[in-house]
Write a structure and sequence with these properties.
Layout: H1 7-21, E1 25-35, E2 39-42, E3 48-55, E4 57-61, E5 69-72, E6 76-79, E7 85-88, E8 100-109, H2 117-121, E9 126-128, H3 135-147, H4 155-177, H5 183-189, H6 191-202, H7 210-217, H8 221-232, H9 236-251, H10 259-265, H11 271-282, H12 286-298
Antiparallel strand pairs: 1-8, 2-7, 3-6, 3-8, 4-5, 4-7, 6-9
Protein name: AraC-type DNA-binding protein
InterPro entries: AraC_lig, AraC_XylS_family_regulators, Homeodomain-like_sf, HTH_AraC
Keywords: DNA-binding, Transcription, Transcription regulation
């Protein structure tokens, strides 16, 4: 099995694995300059929203926030479920506002509309402060902020890729510092469950059973199954199946891989068993999903 990762490595590896399987798509949609007493009403959106403060500062108000938040240069705020919010330069007429502010705004979504363990574990909004971010996250944000103000070949593609990486690192940062964790983040905060989750995500095609995962976690079979289900809302095998099918969606985008090859890679004993499970969870067969994806890309 090799050396087991420490808890921080296990957490970040699992989060990256889930985000990849769920086919996270991130795009920068605006680089907006403001001056004086400015105000932006952001309606509820069907996708996730984030704002990176490039220059100056701004206030954020939202029904989901107990109190308005003031963000400074380098801070990042994320609304995972696209909640409505207001951005403004100042809260009251008597308050002074920064002479100039710039916000880099983006959207993100996932390929599947099915349950997403990361999205379910995130709050309605979270903030990563520049002073709390690790060196890598701060440096990546600096690169994104610099590139946003330059005319570069393929700039939109570059900005989207940088934003994708920034979002992944922001989720990992939030997972590390969150106080009230739930779902997948709560499970990953438990060193024992984190070991099992890391092993499962590292080798999803392995013939895992509840007892073998419990052994990785260093727990009894019963205690492991109860705690896993309590935190994640699904049994270990149901979670494994969901992850395998999410990973299958990603792998099926590679036309060099046959459906049989994907089934084998993910631990299914037969292509027929894989097809049945895929259709039960996704509502369509893997072949139809692949055709629809090809038509979408071609259109």
């Amino acid at each position: 099995m090799g050396d087991l990762p420490n808890n921080e490595e296990a957490r970040d590896a699992v989060l990256a694995s889930v985000l990849a399987a769920q086919q996270l798509r991130v795009s920068i949609v605006a680089v907006s300059d403001y001056c004086g007493n400015w105000f932006e009403n952001e309606p509820s959106m069907p996708c996730g929203i984030f704002h990176l403060i490039d220059q100056g500062s701004c206030w954020v108000r939202a029904p989901i926030l107990d109190t308005p938040l003031q963000l400074q240069s380098g801070d990042l705020i994320v609304f995972p479920r696209g909640g409505a919010h207001v951005l403004c330069g100042r809260l009251t007429e008597s308050e002074s506002s920064p002479e100039f502010s710039t916000l880099i705004c983006g959207e993100f979504a996932f390929a599947s509309a099915r349950s997403n363990p990361i999205l379910s574990a995130l709050p309605e909004a979270f903030v990563v402060r520049q002073q709390d971010a690790g060196p890598a996250l701060r440096e990546l944000a600096e690169v994104l902020r610099s590139c946003a103000h330059r005319k570069l070949p393929g700039q939109q593609v570059l900005l989207d890729k940088l934003a994708d990486s920034l979002f992944v690192m922001a989720v990992c940062q939030f997972a590390a510092q969150a106080q009230n964790r739930r779902g997948l983040l709560a499970a990953l905060a438990d060193a024992r469950l984190a070991k099992a989750l890391a092993a499962l995500h590292r080798e999803p095609g392995k013939p895992w059973r509840v007892d073998s995962l419990a052994q990785v976690a260093g727990m009894s079979r019963t205690a492991f199954a109860v705690e896993f289900t309590r935190l994640l809302g699904a049994s270990p095998i149901a979670y494994l199946t969901d992850f395998r099918i999410a990973e299958a969606r990603r792998l099926l985008r590679d036309k060099r891989l046959s459906v049989a090859a994907v089934a084998e890679q993910l631990g299914y004993q037969s292509e027929a068993a894989f097809r049945r499970t895929f259709k039960r969870l996704e509502g369509v067969g893997p072949g139809q999903l692949r055709r629809e994806a090809g038509e979408s890309e071609g259109g």
